[in-house]
Every structure is written in structure tokens, then in C-alpha cells.
Write a structure and sequence with these properties.
Blueprint (H helix, E strand, L loop, with lengths): L3 E5 L4 H12 L3 E6 L18 E5 L5 H11 L3 E4 L6 H6 L1 H22 L7 E7 L23 H20 L3 E6 L1 E3 L8 H10 L4 E4 L5 E6 H14 L5 E4 L4 E3 H15 L9 E4 L14 H7 L7 H14 L6 H7 L9
Parallel strand pairs: 1-2, 1-4, 2-3, 4-5, 5-6, 6-10, 7-9, 8-12
Antiparallel strand pairs: 9-11
């Protein structure tokens, strides 16, 4: 029998890539998205609609979420609906708390009711490595490690994780949490580091880096992350959490140089004038994230398929082939610097 999946935030970056992969795996997909600045129908322009249904809906709307669950009786709900940009959380924390905490609360309340009529259901909640906070050199975060969020964004995600774990223990809800490292790939809104750097090179604008560029991040190609999420649905243990990472960690300065080098060598040698500018750092900027992902590899048999350089090549190629994605109307949404506190 065909499995049915709800994906919240399905017009966003990871959500849209997950939907494409679910459709390839013969799922019927119900996409729930309230359509924020980062949502884009362009992300799903080529999909076939015979196994797909879209609802413009806020996850805080408990009544309509209940109706959709009752109507479609899904096997799984992947929760990717969230405010995700740290800089925006510094400027306006409230919207992050509404979506990332209250939104999750509403979904949990709906599931608490739904599981009474639907057996063999799971919710996969997509969290982040940022909940663990700054990680010392040579250390890696393991599932169960103490949370130490540094930004309003990471605090909201950590709060959601704690809330979910309380519902698992108190109400026996069938939920699994994934904590993933930094994603990159097609469809990512260009406020994030990699697509912003690619976009700047395309328009002959210098790449901007916070502070001295020493901040280190672990990176994963979005398709590998989406494969992990489906793997967690199929094999993950209810009540557990799984770190999803690649082990590829690089600082922002080296990453900017790598993006520029691949662009010049593989796409346009004339982009010699694009330089790197160091700008004022953002408040509370964590220096290093790193995940121990041995659990998902050993227990569920997941591994990445893409090397970083191969995935970065594919990502640059996608942005070059999809100029409509970062049209002049879109540019207004990500050109302005955010995350600075006024004195």
C-alpha cells in the first residue's frame, strides 16, 4: 500500500528537496506551508501533481492540522516548518518562538489525538546541531549531550526538542528527532552562507565573511540529509534522536576560498575580481559545531553519497542554471545585513 507523508515547510529548502525524494520513493505527499519569505513555489515547479497535495497553512492552526490528519491518515509527518536564520532571530526573536516552539506544541497536540485512531505512525522532527552550542576543538557532540544554545534561533530549536522529549515520555508519542549539521544544495534561500557566496560571485560582488572567518561548520549536501530522514522514518527507534553529519568541517574563510576556486576553475575564469571582505561579526557567534554521527551509521546503515567538492560543484551549477530563483524581487529579501544590535 502506498505510504502517505505530511511535510511541513515543504516550500522551503530542505522541505522541497525532501518532497522530491519522497515522490521518487512512491509516497503520496501532503505539503503544508504558510508561505514565508523563504518559501518558493519555484522549488517544486517540475513535480507531478498526481501524488501531491498542497495546503497553505500555519502549523499553529490546530483545527486544520487535525482535519488534514483525519482526511489523509498519513504514515509519517516530517516537521521542517521553522524559522531558521540566526541573524533574523537576533533582530526578531518572537517569530522564532511562535513557529519553532508553539508550532511544534500544536503539532504534538494534534498527534496526541491522531495516534488514537492511527497505528504505526511516526513524526520525524528536524532539529539542528546548533542546540549543542560551541564545541571545543577535537570534540564532537553526541546524542544525549547537554544542550547549550547561543542564539534565539538555537534556543527555540532546543526548546522544541525538550518539549518533544517530554511528550514522548508523558504521552508515549511516536516521535524521533534528528539533529543535522549545515545543509547546502539546490533551492536554498541566498541569505545562508554558501548560496550567498555563489550569488555574490555571479554578480561580481565581494564575498562577505563575519569576523575573521575562523568559525567552523560541518556541512552536508541536502539530498544526503533527506535520505537520512527517510531512513530514520523507516528504521529509527521511537523516542531516540539521531545526529546527521558528514565529518567534513571547514572554517568560513577556507570555505569561501573553495567556492571561489571551484567557480573559477569549472565555470568562469574571468571571476578574478571577486575578493573576500571581512565584516563585523554577529553577536553570540559560535566558533565551532561538530557532530558524532556514528549512531545513525551503525544503527540505521546510513552514509552520505556525495563528497563535499562534488556536491558544491552541483550546487554552483544549479544556481547558474536557475537565475529566476534569485530574481530582483527575491534579492530585496536577502541583500540587507541582519543580525546587528543597535548601540
Amino acid at each position: 500500500m502506498q505510504k502517505k507523508a505530511i511535510v511541513t515547510g515543504g516550500l522551503g529548502f530542505i522541505g522541497s528537496n525532501l518532497i522530491k525524494l519522497l515522490l521518487k520513493n512512491n509516497f503520496f505527499v501532503i505539503n503544508i506551508d504558510k508561505i514565508t519569505y523563504a518559501s518558493n513555489f519555484y522549488n517544486l515547479r517540475d513535480i507531478k501533481k498526481n501524488n501531491y497535495k498542497f495546503y497553505k497553512l500555519d502549523i499553529c492552526n490546530k483545527k486544520k492540522i487535525n482535519l488534514i490528519l483525519k482526511k489523509y491518515k498519513p504514515n509519517v509527518l516530517f516537521n521542517l516548518a521553522a524559522e531558521t536564520h540566526v541573524d533574523r532571530s537576533i533582530n526578531n526573536p518572537e517569530i522564532f518562538f511562535k513557529s519553532n516552539i508553539m508550532g511544534v506544541y500544536n503539532i504534538l497536540e494534534c498527534i496526541k489525538k491522531y495516534v488514537k485512531i492511527k497505528k504505526n505512525f511516526r513524526m520525524i522532527h528536524v532539529s539542528t546541531d546548533e542546540v549543542y552550542g560551541d564545541i571545543k576543538k577535537f570534540k564532537k557532540s553526541k546524542e544525549g549531550d547537554k544542550y547549550s544554545p547561543s542564539s534565539p534561533y538555537s534556543a527555540s530549536k532546543a526548546s522544541a526538542d525538550h518539549l518533544i522529549n517530554s511528550y514522548i515520555r508523558t504521552y508515549k508519542l511516536p516521535v524521533v528527532i534528528s539533529n543535522c549539521c549545515n545543509n547546502f544544495g539546490p533551492n536554498q534561500f541566498p541569505e545562508k552562507f554558501i548560496p550567498k557566496a555563489i550569488f555574490n560571485i555571479i554578480i561580481n560582488k565581494n564575498i562577505q565573511i563575519y569576523g575573521k572567518g575562523r568559525n567552523q561548520r560541518e556541512w552536508i549536501y541536502v539530498e544526503d540529509h533527506c535520505r537520512a530522514l527517510i531512513n530514520i522514518f523507516r528504521k529509527g527507534k521511537i523516542g531516540e534522536s539521531y545526529n546527521v553529519g558528514t565529518g567534513f568541517i571547514v572554517n568560513n574563510l577556507e570555505l569561501a576560498k573553495k567556492i571561489r576556486k571551484i567557480y573559477r576553475s569549472s565555470f568562469d575564469k574571468k571571476k578574478q575580481k571577486v575578493k573576500i571582505d571581512f565584516i563585523k561579526d554577529r553577536p553570540g557567534h559560535d566558533l565551532r559545531y561538530a557532530l558524532d554521527s556514528s549512531k545513525i551509521k551503525k544503527k540505521l546503515g546510513w552514509k552520505r553519497l556525495y563528497s563535499f567538492d562534488r556536491a558544491l560543484f552541483k550546487t554552483i551549477e544549479w544556481y547558474l542554471n536557475n537565475p529566476r530563483f534569485y530574481s530582483s524581487n527575491q534579492r530585496k529579501k536577502f541583500d540587507k545585513r541582519l543580525g546587528l544590535i543597535n548601540d
